[in-house]
Design goal:
heterodimer; B: mainly alpha; 2 strands; 67% helix; globular
């Protein structure tokens, strides 16, 4: 009888442990997503010189794709024009845009001189998003404010927008991309993005 | 030295310098894209940029001036001048700007900040040898960024249209009186031309990094400059407070379109044109309404916060006078 209840307690304990562990694994909070990504970024910066551009690109590929919702960003960035694109064009855009995002990280975070990210606060927006306020400390320079906007995607949170010192990346890209689509069309947009990726890889 | 942030960046910290860099006609060093003026049939006019055609021409002109005049001179300056001299020159002119910053702190009723900025100016002018060394920064007094255009914004003057001025670069209708006031409040204005020239050289040389970033990151440098300029100015006027819901509204609008599927997108377009009696897209409609509400809220918020700060000031004056009374009574 005693043995039985011990057994039962053990099973219960195991079950409890298993579910909490499972829950922890699944539900990374918005803050955790941002901080994990920032840590990975700083890690790459520290080895930036040895890695070289292509090394940094490879190292950042997964961290960027796993923390950002690149598909959603790509479609928001072209605004209403998205509906006018064919399915092939939509796929092409997402693919090229993802490469551009990783490439610009690899190009701009190339070395390390004591920078660190500091978490400031977290706030929920009215529409079920979360904004994570943080700043980058650069020794000898003014801090750079980084505000991340995240939305839930399935079980986890993904970055939708980054606002650096008050300038929204999403809004900036959106006006650029829609202007180019309207003035010059889809092929010109893709060509320009590819040209940027090329330039990033050369320097 | 790093820190151009990835997708956007640190450059915004430096974009202030772009602005001043543009005093000698500095704009982006990327040519080509800016001058495509031919295909404009189905382009929707941007409400903040009604004079886009003119602005693009001015932008291309400034770009040319920068390529052929400003950049070569600035490069030569950087080549012949040692780094510590460049830093000293930057600090000197930057320190003089504090006079204008303090004035605008007061005009915006930011009294504590004005005391801090006056302190900065005093320390750097004395211990920092007439401003050549930024001692205040070392002791943790960061420079605030204020100017008259922001003061006008705080007072509730609307921004007006985006304008690209010849030689001067990006501005807005509100930015023009702002710039006139700022120029008048800067001592550099009243000394000889050689000093002004050095000041301009210094600005252009310091904008180099930011200009390079635009060159690298912008698909359409004109739009990139316009958007980052306007957002940067907006953020400064709001003292860096991010309006979290602003962009997410946009995102949700997109999401609503998506959920509605392709069939609904036609209706969405109709709703957007403001066709009445269309109940097919209540979602889009409420979104619009809430967007309007948001704006009202913001406006009333900014009014109430201004009123509050005036209240606080009045209170502190009252307290001061009661203290004075007490002192008198003691005597």
């Amino acid at each position: 009888m005693v043995l039985r209840s011990i057994k039962f307690a053990l099973v219960l304990a195991w079950y409890f442990l298993a579910t909490t562990a499972y829950a922890q694994e699944e539900a990374a909070t918005a803050r955790q997503v941002v901080e994990k990504f920032q840590a990975e970024l700083i890690g790459v910066m520290k080895n930036g010189k040895q890695l070289g551009y292509s090394g940094r690109y490879e190292k950042l590929k997964d961290p960027v794709s796993n923390s950002h919702d690149l598909t959603k960003i790509a479609r928001i960035v072209v605004g209403k024009e998205w509906e006018k694109l064919t399915e092939d064009q939509q796929q092409k855009l997402v693919e090229v845009f993802s490469r551009l995002s990783i490439a610009s990280y690899a190009h701009n975070f190339k070395d390390y001189s004591g920078e660190s990210f500091v978490f400031d606060s977290e706030e929920e927006t009215a529409r079920g998003g979360v904004v994570v306020h943080s700043h980058l400390v650069v020794p000898g320079e003014k801090d750079v404010k980084f505000d991340y906007m995240l939305k839930e995607k399935g079980p986890s949170w993904r970055i939708i927008n980054i606002i650096a010192n008050g300038v929204s990346d999403l809004a900036l890209k959106r006006s650029e991309y829609t202007a180019i689509l309207q003035r010059e069309g889809f092929d010109a947009l893709i060509a320009k993005i590819n040209e940027k990726i090329d330039n990033y890889s050369k320097q | 030295m790093l820190m151009n942030n990835p997708t956007n960046g640190y450059r915004y910290g430096k974009i202030k310098q772009i602005l001043s860099g543009m005093l000698i006609g500095a704009t982006v060093t990327l040519s080509g894209c800016a001058s495509t003026g031919g295909v404009e049939q189905q382009v929707e006019a941007n409400p903040v940029d009604p004079y886009e055609g003119f602005n693009r021409k001015m932008y291309a002109f400034n770009d040319g001036v920068d390529d052929y005049v400003a950049k070569p001179i600035s490069d030569a300056y950087k080549f012949v001048t040692p780094q510590f001299v460049q830093t000293g020159v930057f600090n000197f002119f930057n320190n003089l700007k504090n006079i204008n910053i303090v004035l605008n702190d007061v005009l915006q009723a930011k009294f504590q900040q004005s005391a801090q900025d006056s302190g900065r100016f005093m320390i750097n002018t004395t211990v920092g040898l007439a401003g050549l060394f930024d001692v205040a920064k070392e002791v943790g007094l960061e420079q605030n960024e204020e100017d008259f255009e922001q003061t006008l914004a705080v007072w509730g003057v609307p921004q007006g249209s985006y304008l690209v001025l010849p030689f001067l670069g990006p501005s807005t209708a509100r930015g023009i009186p702002g710039a006139i006031f700022d120029t008048a409040a800067n001592p550099v204005t009243y000394v000889g031309a050689p000093v002004q020239l050095v000041s301009m050289l210094n600005s252009r040389a310091n904008a180099e990094g930011a200009l390079k970033f635009i060159d690298e990151a912008a698909l359409d440098p004109y739009v990139f400059t316009r958007e980052s300029f306007l957002q940067w100015r907006k953020s400064l006027a709001a003292d860096g407070k991010v309006d979290a819901s602003d962009d997410l509204l946009d995102i949700d609008e997109e999401a609503a379109l998506e959920e509605g599927g392709n069939a609904a997108s036609g209706q969405a377009a109709v709703a957007e044109k403001g066709a009445a009696g269309d109940t097919a897209n209540p979602e889009g409609f409420t979104l619009k309404l809430s967007a309007d509400n948001k704006e009202f809220e913001q406006v009333s918020n900014s009014f109430s916060s201004t009123a509050q700060s005036f209240d606080a000031t009045a209170k502190s004056f009252e307290e001061a006078s009661t203290k004075l009374d007490k002192l008198k009574a003691k005597k």
